[in-house]
Amino acid sequence: LICADHNVTPCFNTFYEYLRDVYRKDMEKRDIKVTLSDFNINNLLTTLKQYYRGGRYDFLLNSDKNIDLLSKRFIVFEIDQVKDNKDLFPVVTIIIMEAFINKMRRLKGIRKMILIEEAWKAISSPTMAGYIKYLYKTVRKFNGITGVVTQELNDVIDSPIVKEAIINNSDVKILLDQSKFKDRYEDISAILGLTDVQRQQIFTVNALPPKEGIPYHKEVWISRGQYSDVYSVEVPPEWYWAFTTERVEKEALKVYERAFNDDIEQAIAHIEADRKAMKISRYFDFAVLVNKHQNIMSLWN
Questions:
Q1: Angle at Cα 201 formed by Cα 200 and Cα 204, nearest 5°?
Q2: Residue in 219, 288, 281 with CA at minimum distance from that of residue 249
Q3: H or E segment and range at residue 174
Q4: Which residue in 245, 295, 288 sits closest to 267, CA to CA?
Q5: Contacts 24+ apart (CB under 8 A), 80-85
Q6: Relative orientation angle of helices 264-277 and 247-259, to the nearest 10 degrees
Q7: What is the CA radius of gyration of the chain?
Q8: Which 8-state DSSP code applies to residue 23?
Q9: Tens digit of pLDDT for each residue in 99-114?
Q10: Is 61 exposed, middle or buried (0-12, 13-18, 19+ CB in 10 A)?
């Protein structure tokens, strides 16, 4: 809709008022007979009222901030708090879909990527699953990449909507330690189209015990087409503290954050310096000591 009145603020409230006060009357003038199978503007207004001024979700679509998602290089949508909300999740899904499709089609000549973390949350929604399938079939035509991340392969291969689209259109596959799935890996490897050599490679990931003098690292299997191998991934210690998902290590870092006035950079610098001073090679082992004392190392008794 194009509004010539510059005194009207473009937002959902004014859109709703246009539907209610202008568009509905225009439809009535046309003497359109509405049946149950036709578009019913009164039903639409009733559905949308919760997003209008005074409704329980009136805050959601009425921001006066002009956020240009098209020019943002890195965007994160966190859906944890709305994934179980039957009213909000579809709205957020549409926003995500529109944001990336807009980038995909309009930013010509620029590489774009959408990465869907905890993919089972998205796949569990038929709307989002259909969107993922559409992306995998079309994104390469627009110089784009689609990726999904999940803790279990079954999240992907058990979905009839996205299974074939994701597997058949994924040139790159990255797998972490799969040892806990070894008993049922026959079916999984068949679906992924893995060769016997690739299967053997996968089950060597993190199989060797740690050795003295070798820095802390994790291994990962990466396949690009028919070429694959196991790679060792080692990051600087400060990166490890920043991104660890181990609960014990995260709790230890929080102890240091509190000691340094919630300055995360100072906390990471000091916890790593203390770990080295104690000559403890494993982050986890040092974190256990921090949690035991509930204080930074210089204040231990």
A1: 90
A2: 288
A3: strand 172-175
A4: 295
A5: 83/121
A6: 110
A7: 26
A8: I
A9: 899 899 888 888 999 9
A10: middle
* CB proximity list for 216: less than 8 A, separation 6 or greater: 210, 234, 240, 281, 282, 283
- 189-234: pLDDT as tens digits: 877 788 889 888 988 888 877 766 677 788 999 999 889 999 998 8
Place of tokens 């494993």: 282
Q: How far apart are CA 156 and CA 265, in angstroms?
A: 37
Q: Which of 133, 76, 72, 140 lies closest to 111, judged by CA?
A: 140
d(CA 240, CA 235): 6
DSSP label of 20: I
Q: Do 98 and 134 form a contact (C-beta atoms < 8 A)?
A: no
Q: In whole angstroms, what is the distance from residue 133 CA to residue 159 CA?
A: 11
CA gap 166, 170 in Å, rounded: 6
Which two tokens mark 243?
A: 């991104």
Written as six digits, the tokens of 129 are 């699953």
Residues 191 and 158: beta-carbon distance below 8 Å: no
